């Protein structure tokens, strides 16, 4: 791994042109942990294929350090909830477009592409992560990658997202918000709003203060393992303001404890992160 992934730069304006470059969020360790946790808590051919031994080992350590099953259920519910939120945010139009920035080893893009062949699904991550993702999937003969997925290798600290997407204007973009400060996230999601279609929406997980407090010991351990999460929020209004300040007209905040139950997932679920769906237009 090159050391550039440890740089804390999150957002900067390119000097040569006026396009935003998104910068680095955190290195791939976070993705390894998340895919390991999914494989441990919701094993399936897809989650297992996308995970690594190291990620599963980190996840086993977390399960040991946080024996509260409500926290485990949150991790198990994280991808199904993200998938449901993306589908909820998707405008009703022919061939809508989803773009997942920093897809890591997430199964959600593949699950959506299977379930909704009408959706054009775009996944983007660094060349290193996309290479690993492709290799892992290639080694899993049972997994079929649908034709409606496009995968792009792009380091978004050196290439503008608009250069990757060309003329494409996604209808939904999802991003993990916890690695940005609130001010940075406001700029990032404002930039995403400019890139999206007019009926577009941004879907974003944000760490929730009360939930992080409940898993404090382990949270400290994971900070040292996978980096800090300055984007933590403690009030719904704070989460909403990040997106309204960025120009979104309607902002929904979903709590896993309720949203997971609505989806029929196993409950009770701890609210370790909250899900935001921010729509460019008034709903
Ligand atoms: C928290 S992980 C994403 C996790 C993923 N959404 C999941 O649920 O498994 C962060 C991802 O951001 C990617 N990333 C960080 N900086 C990047 C950059 N400059 N360009 C593209 N991807 C980047 C990392 O490679 C990593 O896969």
Write the layout of secondary structure elements.
Layout: E1 12-13, E2 20-21, H1 29-41, H2 45-50, H3 53-65, H4 69-89, E3 97-101, H5 108-115, E4 120-125, H6 127-138, E5 149-153, H7 161-165, E6 172-176, H8 182-195, E7 201-207, H9 209-214, H10 216-226, H11 236-245, E8 250-254, H12 256-262, E9 273-279
Parallel strand pairs: 3-4, 3-6, 4-5, 6-7
Antiparallel strand pairs: 1-2, 7-9, 8-9
This protein binds S-adenosylmethionine.
Total separate domains: 1
What would CATH call the class?
Alpha Beta
Task: Sketch the topology as an H/E string, one letter per element.
Answer: EEHHHHEHEHEHEHEHHHEHE
Number of helices: 12
Per DSSP E runs of 2 or more residues, the count of β-strands stands at 9
Biggest sheet architecture? 7 strands, mixed
CA distance, first residue to last residue: 44 Å
Radius of gyration: 18 Å
């Amino acid at each position: 791994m090159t050391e550039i992934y440890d740089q804390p730069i999150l957002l900067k304006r390119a000097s040569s042109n006026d396009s935003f470059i998104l910068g680095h969020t955190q290195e791939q360790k976070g993705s390894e942990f998340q895919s390991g946790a999914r494989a441990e808590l919701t094993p399936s051919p897809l989650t297992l294929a996308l995970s690594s031994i190291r990620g599963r080992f980190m996840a086993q350590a977390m399960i040991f350090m946080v024996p509260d099953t409500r926290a485990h259920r949150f991790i198990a519910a994280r991808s199904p909830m993200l998938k449901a939120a993306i589908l909820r945010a998707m405008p009703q139009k022919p061939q809508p477009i989803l773009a997942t920035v920093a897809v890591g080893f997430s199964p959600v893009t593949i699950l959506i592409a299977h379930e909704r062949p009408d959706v054009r699904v775009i996944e983007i991550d660094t060349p290193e992560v996309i290479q690993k993702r492709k290799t892992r999937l290639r080694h899993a003969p049972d997994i079929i990658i649908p034709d409606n997925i496009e995968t792009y290798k792009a380091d978004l600290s050196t290439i503008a997202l608009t250069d990757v997407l060309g003329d494409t204007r996604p209808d939904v973009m999802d991003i993990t918000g916890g690695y940005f400060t609130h001010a940075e996230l406001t700029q990032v999601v404002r930039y995403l709003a400019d890139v999206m279609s007019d009926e577009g929406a941004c879907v974003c997980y944000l760490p929730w203060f009360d939930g992080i407090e409940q898993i404090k010991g382990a949270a400290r351990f994971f900070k040292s393992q996978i980096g800090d999460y300055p984007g933590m929020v403690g009030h719904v209004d704070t989460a909403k303001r990040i997106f309204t300040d960025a120009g979104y007209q309607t902002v929904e905040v979903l709590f896993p404890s309720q949203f997971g139950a609505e989806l029929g997932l196993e409950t009770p679920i701890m609210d370790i992160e909250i899900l935001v769906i921010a729509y460019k237009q008034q709903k």
